[in-house]
Amino acid sequence: MQQIDNKLLNETNKFDNLFWVTVSKVLDVIKLQDCIASKFAVSLSQCEDETTRVARLFVELTEKKRYVLILDDLWEAFELKNVGIPEPTSANGCKIVITTRSLDVCRNMECKGIKMELLSEDEAWNLFLDKVGHSVLLTPSLEATMKLVAEECACLPLAIIMIARSMKGVVDEYEWRNALEELRKATGGLTNMEKVLEQLKYSYFCLRDEKFQHCLLYCALYPEDLKSKGRS
């Protein structure tokens, strides 16, 4: 998605504005409206009621003319007009890009669907190597075991990244074989989505410091679209 965003930013002759909004798993219209409006420094807090909010956002977006609105990770379909988002047309030159894990959401939003294919074996292996670190000693036997671990990730980017990072810098072949055995035990007979969840669980237990585990659990309490400030 980040690559698409970067490419669209360079399409300055086609679009005047690009707005990227991450949608919460549980659709909150008020929150979605506020998030979109914040992208162009507009506050809807002074609007007296829902109708006024919808009208204000509609006017603001209409004035932006040629824009791309990315609604990332949408779990539930909704009517654009109920939020205050103008229908994209050839006349206004606007586009709406939606990412979703559900084909039903895509159909109900009346989108032109583009299915994201799995990585090729070479792409998956290169991503795995990139995340695990090229400094890992690739002896023939170790490389073979590493490839088997990578294959357990079923060419799914999220699983590859999490498992590879959990094994980053590990050069002990015994640890790699143990990781392979544990992954096979955890994911045997499961669907791809169930495998990803088990692989995430495995990578969590691979965190070598209990403080990191607690930190991850703490972060998981917050929604993915929450804005937070770092503190040194």
Account of the protein in words:
The chain has 232 residues and is mostly helical. It has 2 domains: 2-108, no CATH class; 121-219. It is built from 11 helices and 3 strands. It has helices spanning 2-9, 29-38, 50-64, 80-83, 103-108, 121-132, 140-151, 157-166, 173-187, 192-205, 210-219; strands spanning 17-22, 67-72, 95-98. A 3-stranded parallel sheet has the order 1-2-3, with helices on both faces. Helix 2 runs parallel beside helix 3 (50-64). The longest helix has 15 residues, at 50-64. The protein is elongated. The chain starts with a helix and ends in a 13-residue tail after the last helix. The model has no long low-confidence stretch (mean pLDDT 83).
Estimated structural class: mainly alpha
**Largest sheet, strands/sense/barrel:** 3 strands, parallel
* C-alpha-based Rg, rounded: 22 Å
Strand line-up of the largest beta sheet: 1-2-3
Instruction: Give the strand tally.
Output: 3
Query: Kindly state the mean pLDDT as a whole number?
Result: 83
Order of helices and strands: HEHHEHEHHHHHHH
Counting DSSP H or I runs of 4 or more residues, the number of helices is: 11
How far apart, in Å, are the first and last alpha carbons? 29 Å
Q: What spatial form do the alpha-carbon principal axes imply?
A: elongated
Q: Uncertain spans, ≥5 residues at pLDDT below 50?
A: none
How many structurally independent domains?
2
Helix content: 40-55%
Kindly estimate the percentage of residues that lie in beta strands according to DSSP. Answer: 5-15%
